[in-house]
Amino acid sequence: MTDETNVLDPLQIAESWHREGRAVALATVIETWGSAPRPVGSHLVIDGEGTFQGSVSGGCVEGAVIAEAADVIDSGVAKILEFGVADETAWRVGLSCGGRIRVYLERIDG
Amino acid sequence: MQLETLQAINAARAARRAAVVVTDLQTGRAEAFVEGHRFPDEWSAVIAGALRSGRPALATIEERSLFINVHLPPPRLVVIGAVHISQALSRFAPIAGFDMTIIDPRTAFATAERFRGVELIAEWPEDVLAGQPLDRYTALAALTHDPKIDDYPLRAALEAGCFYVGALGSRKTHASRTERFEGAGVGKETIERIKAPIGLDIGAASPAEIAIAILAEIIAALRNRDLGGQGGAR
Q1: Which residues of B touch A103 (CB under 8 A)?
Q2: How much of chain B, in percent, has pLDDT values that exceed 70?
């Protein structure tokens, strides 16, 4: 792969961040229902400072995933996050497109 | 996920091999499996299925809840001709996820200064393709306007079932190309798989715009290709 491709590839980024000694969490879309902006298998990579690359939605829920990533980086325990339509609790993050997604969030160990 | 698992996925993709990662969602344990290697018996059916379809999936096996992710190698783009359009393509195609190679025997065109970040080979396509054969995951765009350079790789791409085969040139140029190929015994249906004039019709005028029109046409071919069928380009 060329340098340009690597710049946008979350898994390459996860490996190089880890090599630099940064704590790294990897988020993966594992399930979608209805209209979802990013397909199953999509990745978001987050470091200990909250820097991120990649995406699990169209920018709608990344903020919440990044906040949870700090927890996962601390504890080392993976979690599954679920996001749906922003309904009665309008201040909660949700997907304006009406879909629902499940995201698996884990720490890169080693 | 362990670092070794992540490294195994990245190494497989760099070597243009498909990899499957099976994650146990309860324990968090993740394992990578590379195409062509042996898979554990209880998982071999789901791993083989994921490799075949290219689609990630959830599965429950022996009461374990698993997520199976698939990492296919990036599609390749082989461009014949180190021309002005290729310079623009060498910027756009890698961002769109393509592994790009440019082949042009004319050393005046194929200079490292004009092309950065993509593989550039200043040799005849015949010689290059002998060592790096084309395949169904490859798109080929012939951009030199010169039959001596373009014809061989175009025919090789049709034979290899490349998911996209495009050739630069006017309708008149393509008509004479069609005649030459028919004369050489290439079937009419096969010749019709060549996209010519090349690129989606967006009224592109500048080399950069033509590069975008070509890349858009390649993406359309990639996303609409027949996954189960034998033929590559349609």
Answers
A1: none
A2: 96
